[in-house]
Amino acid sequence: MKKIMVLTVAMLLTGTAWAGDGSLKQIMQQLGKDYSSLNHAILLKDFAGAAHFAHAIADHDKPSMGQRLKIMGELGTEMSAFKKADGRVHELAIKIEEAARAKDMPLLIQSQSQMLTACMACHTSYRSRIVNLLE
Ligand code: HEC
């Protein structure tokens, strides 16, 4: 328990880049929409649209401090793996945005095809645990 407290405080101090106002569920619903819109833009060879929605995914909102604390309490030392999964989506989204701006369709398709795997990696490990927690 003490360990978790120390970890939580350490994350509060260092993790300022990961706090906002919305609920995680709302953020995820928006991510889902942006993900679909991104796929659709690629299908239409709409590079500007693809860059726009990839940017929105990369730049998604952060959950509120209250939700963040609950998640940290539940995940404890697994929090770093959870953040890493989020980071993977972020990196891919930036890669997709760059490929779209460069109008590089092969790279765009290749990086987009990795996105669902990145989203699902976190869902598989954490979604059910956190859904119950934040209800
Ligand atoms: C770091 C972990 C993580 C990553 C990465 C992640 N998700 Fe989620 N996602 C969650 C969690 C946790 C929930 C459950 C939230 C809740 O219901 O409170 C969720 C729920 C969802 C939901 C369901 C929302 C609803 O209405 O119940 C959608 C849609 C979704 N995510 C889309 C995505 C997409 C698209 C990506 C990738 C671009 C993604 N997620 C990446 C953790 C993640």
TrEMBL record:
Domain of life of the source = Bacteria
| MF annotations from Gene Ontology | electron transfer activity; heme binding; iron ion binding
GO BP, one annotated term: electron transport chain
Per UniProt, which keywords does this protein have? Signal
Residue span of the signal peptide, if any?
1-19
Could you identify this protein by its name? Cytochrome C
